[in-house]
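FAQ
Q: What does a multi-component entry look like?
A: The components come first, one per line:
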Amino acid sequence: MTTREIYNLLFIFLTKACSYFCLFILIFLISSTLIKAWPELSFEFLNSYPSRFANKAGIKAALVGSFYLICLTSIIALPVGILSALCLEEYIPKKSFTKKILELNISNLASMPSIVYGLIGLALFARFLNFGTSLISGALTLSLLILPIIIVSTQAALKTVPKAISLAGYAMGAHKYQIVFGLKLPYALTGILTGVILSISRAIGESAPLIIVGAVGYVSFLPDNLFDSYTVLPVQIFNWAGRPSADFHNRAAAAIIILLLVLLSFNIFAIYLRQKSIRNTKS
Amino acid sequence: MSTEEEILLECKNVNIFYGKKQVLHDINLKFPKNKVTAIIGPSGCGKSTLLRCFNRMNDFTEGFKLNGMIKFKNLDIYDKATDVPRLRKNVGMLFQKPNPFPKSIYKNITWGPKINGFKMDYDQLVEKCLKKAALWDEVQDRQHESALELSGGQQQRLCIARTIALNPEFILMDEPCSALDPKSTNKIEALIKELSQKYTIIIVTHNMQQAARISDYCLFLLSGKAVEFRKTEELFNAPKSPKTKNYIEGLFG
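Then the predicted structure of the entire assembly, as tokens:
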């Protein structure tokens, strides 16, 4: 064997070792959680409110809270994010100073730690606008958190639209809005949706900013308006995992499994959409 | 140019710049109505640039500047007050690579009329346009399938169909066969012949045989200058300029 062949084998071994290492860690984490969680998982667990007694505690409030919060967040963040991206991509001149400043800021925001968004939310929504520790404060805070991701991914999706398509549209006498809404958005739609789903799944998993703006660990009712208190899955998990009793730790493990299932289904849907968009655009 | 032809388009002292670089020099031409005019010349001579002036598709090119005047009937194309989308609606355009919309065959044809507010029986329109573009027999059973499933030649014919759906006053073609195989090219050429009975067509082509086969008039451009513009037969059989002669004999370009 020559030295180059040996290097080749070594390199293959190294890349494989690294990727299997990641996989191993993931499997270890999931299986150790699952072992704890398995006896706890039941319909009772999904359908009970939290309790002082570990064996009666459930995640009904957290599941419903997460669901409400994500719906609200989407309603707020999607239109704002997608329209901002359209404005940046289509209406602000490509090389202008404004566009550069805006894009720099947005990419900065996208990489900001989520706890900082919590502090903004606390100051702006909870205190200044006086929404307190309510569902709407949480939703607005999470909207801020995922806006940059939605904007960046929507922009990326719009950039994939071939120029030939919009030129064909212009050559047929279309006005710009007709190109944007009639040709570009439909073409980019699956790409936009993929980004949206990934950002929403990030929002579902967030706990730090919500703890700051006041999602509480013990809620024994379902929120019935925008200004009610609420809790969400990650906060519930955080709360249970911080208790001294091992029984609550097992409950936390069970809640983690539920959260992982929710995230997994979102990501599978995103992958499905991406495959579909690849199929649609092949020519 | 013979005097008896009706004039559709007229260039008067047209100079075109990209930034500081001048690409077309002092073009003075009259394009006759209901004829096929071919523009030939070596790569980079400004053929496509000239073509794109007639529906202002050059507006999307950075640094584009035009001096002089281009008249379409009584409309000054580059006047500030010109309604550009309306102008483009009246001018069909076919691109080098077939570029159907990623929509169904049916919607490819109806999109143009819809955005321009035409009120009509769309089923009938689609059938009429597909028949005119010699595509009806091949696709009549799958009008609602994606246009991207069609072959390159079929896509280009679909692009012709969607262009004539707007009933344009003339059609610009920018090397419409350069991405197609010989068989599809034949079909498109036959179609151009057919369409020329009703439409004025200006076609840019690299292929001199093609120009000779399908055009009534021919313009030879060289380094941004109009060298010769005459009836195709005359230009190919008895070129006046030695430059034209050299080019059509394949000495350069």
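Q: Is there any commentary attached?
A: Sometimes. For this entry: Chain A has eleven helices and no strands.
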